[in-house]
Amino acid sequence: DAGVTQSPTHLIKTRGQQVTLRCSPKSGHDTVSWYQQALGQGPQFIFQYYEEEERQRGNFPDRFSGHQFPNYSSELNVNALLLGDSALYLCASSPGDRVATQYFGPGTRLTVL
Amino acid sequence: AQTVTQSQPEMSVQEAETVTLSCTYDTSESDYYLFWYKQPPSRQMILVIRQEAYKQQNATENRFSVNFQKAAKSFSLKISDSQLGDAAMYFCAWETSGSRLTFGEGTQLTVNP
Fold first, then answer.
1. Do A100 and B98 touch (CB under 8 A)?
2. pLDDT tens-digit map of A36-81
3. Do B99 and A100 touch (CB under 8 A)?
4. For chain B, how big is the Rg over CA atoms in Å?
5. Per the omega criterion (within 30 degrees of 0), is the bond before A8 cis?
6. Closest CA in chain A for residue B50
7. N or C: which end of chain A has fewer CB within 10 A?
8. How would you write A65-80 as a 3-class SS string?
9. How far apart are CA A79 and CA A20, in angstroms?
């Protein structure tokens, strides 16, 4: 049973560029959440997708957008990259019922120069 | 606003000894879940243990157990017979069903041989 997968593992971008990160949820999971983890801090919630709709959103600007596909995989897009967007981006998946445990992927490390 | 506080930025323990990591939270919700996640240097977020707020019995998973005090909004993690592989950053997190995870700032655990 494959767990949550994310791609790419690492990437480097320059200020002003756009980036797309990808996530495939654990088998049987239909809800995908994205988190940003700056170095030395706890993860911060970006948004959550369920049934191809954004169900919840954290305190992040509109530069951060996402999408969920019919197979439940998801993308996180960040436009107009800033130096402060450098972080580990974590994807977590969970079943859409009230069993709330979220399982995390290995993350994508984004560096903005 | 819901908050999670981990007051111990760093802890250390001797191999085979017991250590307790502290966590407090603030919420007005009555139905929620609490988690401890472990993040080793690989930065993969790994679920350690979960506690449902409606359960009075403290959760246990092998060498890991929690002390859940709902009235005090306290949720500590006890690691017994500590092993070198337990060295990691530990995050306490809070969630209502189907909702976002709110993380604390983490406690860095060092295990000394």
1. yes
2. 999 999 999 999 999 899 988 999 999 999 999 999 999 999 999 9
3. yes
4. 13
5. yes
6. A101
7. N
8. EEEECCCCCEEEEECC
9. 9
